[in-house]
């Protein structure tokens, strides 16, 4: 709580770049007052970014290690994504968000804030800070409700903004998939579905039990 208070005292939020489906992230643009080389007060800007790990990490060029910034490497990216995959699988599935900063963002007057398609240009050269995982278990009655639907001949499909690995783990937990069920042809990310031909998409809609984000 103290850390949150200190951050709020140090930075003033100017505006938010709202979440968009294409970049799978959002950010807050903040300013703070620092001492310039001449000793006078100067305003400095920073952006705090959060979003889907695979999207945010792909745009990271550095990683925060204590008070230092070190270059991000392909190997480090893969290690982080591997951990995210582990967090998003198993019985205690965590919904993960990657956190980062843009330490030298464009000036507000140089940004197009009316077109969300432009936001990804400003959320680049990100410094990776970490990943947070949130435990959000399904409500206790969900499994029974799905079982009753199945017994009544109702086909249950889950469509979610979670990534595919997390979504599959949740589906197993609530009974859409059995614990050992092969999900090939029954679970698709948005990107996988988009890559199918129209005929294959029609077949997927007839057979699939789960659609997750791309």
Automatic annotation (TrEMBL):
Keyword check for Magnesium: no
Keywords: ATP-binding, Cell membrane, Copper, Copper transport, Ion transport, Membrane, Metal-binding, Nucleotide-binding, Translocase, Transmembrane, Transmembrane helix, Transport
Subcellular location: Cell membrane
Superkingdom of origin organism: Eukaryota
Matching Gene3D superfamilies: Calcium-transporting ATPase, cytoplasmic domain N, HAD superfamily/HAD-like
EC numbers for this chain: 7.2.2.8
Protein name: P-type Cu(+) transporter
Organism: Rotaria sordida
Taxonomic classification: Eukaryota, Metazoa, Spiralia, Gnathifera, Rotifera
């Amino acid at each position: 709580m103290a850390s949150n208070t200190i951050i709020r005292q140090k930075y003033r939020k100017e505006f938010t770049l709202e979440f968009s489906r294409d970049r799978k992230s959002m950010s807050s643009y903040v300013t703070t007052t620092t001492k310039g080389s001449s000793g006078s007060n100067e305003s400095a800007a920073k952006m705090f970014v959060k979003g889907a790990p695979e999207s945010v990490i792909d745009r990271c060029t550095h990683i925060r290690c204590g008070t230092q910034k070190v270059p991000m490497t392909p190997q480090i990216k893969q290690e982080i994504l591997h951990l995210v995959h582990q967090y998003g699988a198993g019985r205690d599935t965590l919904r993960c968000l990657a956190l980062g900063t843009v330490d030298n963002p464009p000036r507000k007057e140089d940004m197009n804030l009316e077109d969300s398609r432009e936001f990804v240009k400003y959320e680049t050269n990100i410094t990776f800070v970490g990943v947070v995982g949130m435990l959000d278990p399904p409500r206790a009655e969900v499994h029974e409700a799905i079982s009753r639907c199945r017994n009544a001949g109702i086909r249950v499909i889950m469509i979610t903004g979670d990534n595919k690995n997390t979504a599959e783990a949740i589906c197993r937990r609530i009974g859409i998939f059995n614990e050992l069920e092969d999900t090939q042809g029954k679970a698709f990310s948005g990107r996988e579905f988009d890559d199918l031909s129209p005929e294959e998409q029609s077949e997927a809609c007839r057979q699939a039990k789960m659609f997750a984000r791309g």
